Amino acid sequence: MKSKVTWVAAVTMLLTVWSHLLPAPAGGVRAQVAGGRHSAWVFCVDTSLSVDNEQFDRAKDALRRTIDATVTFGDRVWMIEMGAAPAAARPFALPVGSLRKSDRDRTGEAMQRIKLEIHAALDGLSRRALSTDVGEPIERGLMILREQPAAFARKLVVVSDFVSDDGARRMRLTAQTPTPGVTAQGVEVGLLVARPTADYLRRFRLSPAAHAETVAREWRQYFTQVGARSYAARLVDAQPAF
């Protein structure tokens, strides 16, 4: 009963965390102007074959909605593909907004162009990795956010089934021990938990609900250890998006 309550609380917390963004003006997304506050985002996306294919597609849809609804003028975004290889981060810089009417169309068009580039990068991701190191890309993302002290908000979004494996035989759901020096101070963490394939669930001897609860519990402990400002986890199937 306690684990069920913990999981429900985690889902509720995530929806609360992402609802407390800067107020949006009437008609849509807040406009960030020169000298204003901006957010830094890192999206880590698991492309391993252990992720259920339908869950993978739904997760990408959820990220598209998040990008369209909450990433805005002046924000900085990094996309990290989670697989066996060391994580490489692809950066995107949203243009700074302007209060001058003569500049609004230009900056608005520039923002839409960058968002389309982010969408294209996301669309280019597919399930292909034969093995996954979940911890390394997460810590890479935290290092990036640590280097953004001027950001008003720093957000790490991780989309994964959180299965670390070497391709077939050795696999685990337990979170790793934090690497010395890694910190999540000031970072808002959101996990979008995808269901693994039926074969992986059988090998773990877990139901989908037990898998989700294990992931939420294990990574809560990890992010508590590294000092995250907030932490929450939710299922890919949950609505709405962040």
Could you give a quick summary of the protein structure above?
The chain is α/β, with parallel strands linked by helices and 242 residues long. It has helices at 2-19, 53-70, 101-123, 135-146, 198-204, 208-225, and strands spanning 39-46, 76-82, 89-93, 153-160, 164-165, 171-172, 187-193, 230-235. It has one domain (2-15, 36-235): von Willebrand factor, type A domain (Rossmann fold).
- Total strand segments: 8
Number of helices: 6
N-to-C CA distance: 26 Å
Fill in the CATH topology.
Rossmann fold
Question: Any idea of the CATH class?
Answer: Alpha Beta
Kindly report the name of the CATH homologous superfamily. Answer: von Willebrand factor, type A domain
Low-confidence stretches: 1-34
* Overall average pLDDT: 83
Structural class from helices and strands?
A: alpha/beta
CATH architecture assignment name: 3-Layer(aba) Sandwich
In angstroms, what is the radius of gyration? 18 Å
* Total count of domains: 1
Overall shape: globular
Q: List the secondary-structure elements in sequence, H or E.
A: HEHEEHHEEEEHHE
Helix content range: 25-40%
Largest sheet: 6 strands, mixed
Percent strand equals 15-25%
Structure report:
This protein has 242 residues and is α/β, with parallel strands linked by helices. It has one domain: von Willebrand factor, type A domain (Rossmann fold), CATH 3.40.50. The protein has six helices and eight strands, in the order αβαββααββββααβ. A six-stranded mixed beta sheet has the order 3-2-1-4-7-8, with helices on both faces. The chain has a two-stranded antiparallel sheet with strand order 5-6. It is globular.
